[in-house]
Amino acid sequence: MLTTSHIPHTRRSRRGPNAFILLALVAGICFASGSPANQARAGRATSSYGWPVKPFYRQHAIRGYFGDPRTVFSGRPSFRNLMSGAGAFSYHFGVDICAPDGTAVYAVRSGTAAVVSTATEMYVHVSSDDGFAAQYWHVVPAVHTGQNVVAYQTVIGHVTKAAHHVHFSELEDGQYVNPLAPGHLAHYTDHTTPEVSLISFRSTRAGREIAPEFVHGRIHIVAGAYDMPAMQVQSPARWRGLPVAPALVRWRMERVKTGMIVVSGRTAFDVRSTLPPNDDFWTHYARGSHQNMLQFVTRRFWEQPGRYLYRLSRSAFDTRRLRDGLYRVIVTVSDTRGNSSSASQLVTVFN
After folding, report:
1. Which of 123, 152, 177 is the last residue of a domain?
2. Taking the C-alpha atoms of 227, 232, 234 and 238 in order, what is their torsion angle to the nearest 10 degrees?
3. Are residues 151 and 264 located together in one domain of the fold?
4. Are residues 53 and 195 located together in one domain of the fold?
């Protein structure tokens, strides 16, 4: 794969936090103006909420972001299975907040608890009257179904053995939403900048790479990108330094000679607010993508970083729509706080 660090004609640019920072600060000030219980009772008029583990008003490290790929491949470990094999593929529907095993987990909003069993574990679902709900996974429940819970007072469970985190999900009217968006988890700041790691071209969705010096016909344009957690993960050490997915991937294409935009700004991936359907997983992620610590059935490759590749267009891009010549593909990636960077790749259309 060509990476932006090795492409002579690749250009990078960065942009710092925008107005999202101001909104987040305002939300944080509003949240801090009263007690946790009073804020919880205020309902959606004050949408921000504290963290489900103590201290409630201090940011905690998060090792898994909203929209990260969750990939478990069937069959034996092989490049072929990675690129085209079956398996279970989904978007991470919450955030993984680091916490030692046994840590008490509290409700972030008052409501009614339900203990839900799945094929592999149980989680606690707490519904509020205003359409807000939260889920707490990887906990040993300390409440029962139908119990009324009070924000920041009721312990809804404790982090299970060997989990080292609580998975926290937020729902609005039954739909998963991004807890890291402004106005949700309070006292969350992020000064890390997502990066574009590669821009490449394929003959098919999972096919061989094409040299950018002479592309023709229908091709697939793939961008690699990643972000780093806002706070470094300290424990367990195997999660330290592993990437997370950016919240937004956009791209455009211009003719180098004239500067004419031939593909205006298009969105390839956007989980700043909500998630696409899991059925669309390989519509947004490109084959070759996988989660941190790649997994085939029960075999995990510990400490191996995830790889996040994005399909820039839902279907093959037909270069025959363009005149032969030199073009520039520009990819911009952003997080929920407006930190962003761009990279570009020159490509010659030669039909």
Report:
1. 177
2. 20
3. no
4. no
From CA 41, how far away is CA 108, in angstroms rounded?
A: 11
Provide the Cα torsion 39, 189, 20, 95; round to 10°: -70
Distance (Å, whole) CA 108 – CA 188: 15
Instruction: Take residue 300 and report the two structure tokens written for it.
Output: 């995990």
CB 57 within 8 A of CB 32: yes
d(CA 252, CA 332): 9
- Helix/strand/coil for 133: strand
Tell whether 94 and 106 lie within a shared domain: yes
For the chain, the straight-line distance linking the first and the last C-alpha, in angstroms and rounded, comes to 23
What is the layout of strands, in order, in the sheet containing 87-91? 87-91, 69-73, 295-296, 299-300
Residue whose C-alpha is closest to residue 270's, from 297, 288, 246, 234: 246
pLDDT per position as a tens digit, 68-125: 999 999 999 999 999 999 999 999 999 999 999 999 999 999 999 999 999 889 999 9
DSSP 282: H
Instruction: Verify that 34 and 144 share a domain, yes or no.
Output: yes
**SS3 at position 209:** strand
SS (H, E, C) 151-164: CCCCEEEEECCCCC
What pTM, to 2 d.p., does this model score? 0.87
Strand partners, 72: 88
* Phi and psi based region of residue 133 (left: phi greater than 0; alpha: psi -120 to 50; beta: remaining): beta
Over residues 264-287, the pLDDT tens digits come to 999 999 999 999 999 999 999 999
Name the nearest CA neighbour of 183 among 38, 22, 62.
Answer: 22
Which of these, 144, 197, 182, lies nearest to 7 by C-alpha position?
197
